[in-house]
Fold this protein.
Amino acid sequence: MGENWKGQPVRRSDLTAIRKALPAILVVLLTLASVLQAASEGWQRRDVDWQAGGGRRIKGIQYPKDRPVPLRSEEEGAAKHSTDQKVRLYSAPARTATALLANEMLVESPPVDGFVPWIAVSITTRRKAELELEADVETSVRGSYPAGANPRTDYVIGLFDTGASAHVMGYADGMRTGVYPGLITASETVVSGVTGSVVVSVTQPLGVFIDGLAAIDPETLTLDSSDMVGESNVAIMVGQNPGTFPDLPTAIGTPMSVYYTTVIRNDQTWTVERDGETFTAPDIRLYEPDDAEAPQFSNVIPLELRPLGGISVQYIPTLDMGLGGIDIDDILGGGGFASDFPPASPSVIIGNSSQSLFFVHSVDLYDGQKSALDKDRFMLDTGAQVTVVGSRIAARLQLDPAAPEFEVEIEGVTGEISMTPGYYVDAIDIPALGQWFQARQVPVVLLDVSSPEGGTLDGIIGMNLFVDFNLIVRGGGLFLDEDPALELERVEPNAATDANAVE
């Protein structure tokens, strides 16, 4: 594999090498959670519904009665997904305007749960010819909608998820968009996690298009697709009928965000109520990388797309007999090759390795007299409301799994629950051009998360750190592209508005 991958015919030897390098596609795997006993005597429990990355959800949090955990409040204008999260349990001391001006990148006592970047997702059948494997960037909706799908109503609400190495869609969402049954192949892969794994289907190449919740009329719930962007000729994962298991969330991952500049404004939120659920999210807009109208913020956290060497977004075609690829009977009978070569795997970033994701270049952590400095294996995950540290970092900070400061209940893809310890870390500093980003008394969850580079991550930078900021996720990192970056702008206190109410 190498530069010849881009725009060149694919040899079977190339495909074999890639397939060996491509494990079961995982949105981001939570491979280990410390299983603890029930909460200590005197602790209390609260139901929540938070995104933990990788299709996992946090369903409950337990904490000492005398030290409630900091949660977001409705007054702060933060995103919510359940009524349980409207209750403020703890409030950090108010900061003066002078203090904010002195260090606008300092966050005191961030909440444990961050915002959720909900987006509208629409599907078309747009694809290339057989064995043209590379995705095409589309700056407007192109292609036909699946048979029976209404483009105004048959969209779904999913996550803008930089922690997802491939796009994934839940079973119910696949039915609504028309992906089921006509766009499903016989190929399958596995999504695994803390408490087991589930088999998912791989689709035919298709078009995926997204926009923020502003594209949805809050009264009629119809979708305005005029500002949607996306990509075509991508294969995605779709959940099979979950039965008694939880359905998979719909998440649009790094294979999309790598091509765009995504602006996430926490000073303006949108709310949509659909199918009995309430979705509140920051205003999200996607721009082409060279769009002069895209905003710029002065504080810039350098990111890396890792593993390095990514060239393009591609799927791997099926070459196995019996799955629509090479048919020996047809060849011997003079019929030549079968009619198509459906994807054997979803589209991911392909190059010297596979499944590349955005990593923060450097992170410093402090707790008491212990520190973990210049750590470069922290992934930026917009699909995770919580911040995570792995075992290596926990060991450096001397965090004791047997003595957590709070606990969370993580629901895996099979619906089983694992108790996972949480702690308050004294400080997390992230170097940036401009002012460094600094957070104090940071709630973190101890999990070991699979890394696309092999082994496990140092941790995950979740959205709980950025509830007071507008963000710009600048894609990039592919061959000859500029490196990706995260830009930040502090939201003025009490500046957040409900965009639904704005004329």
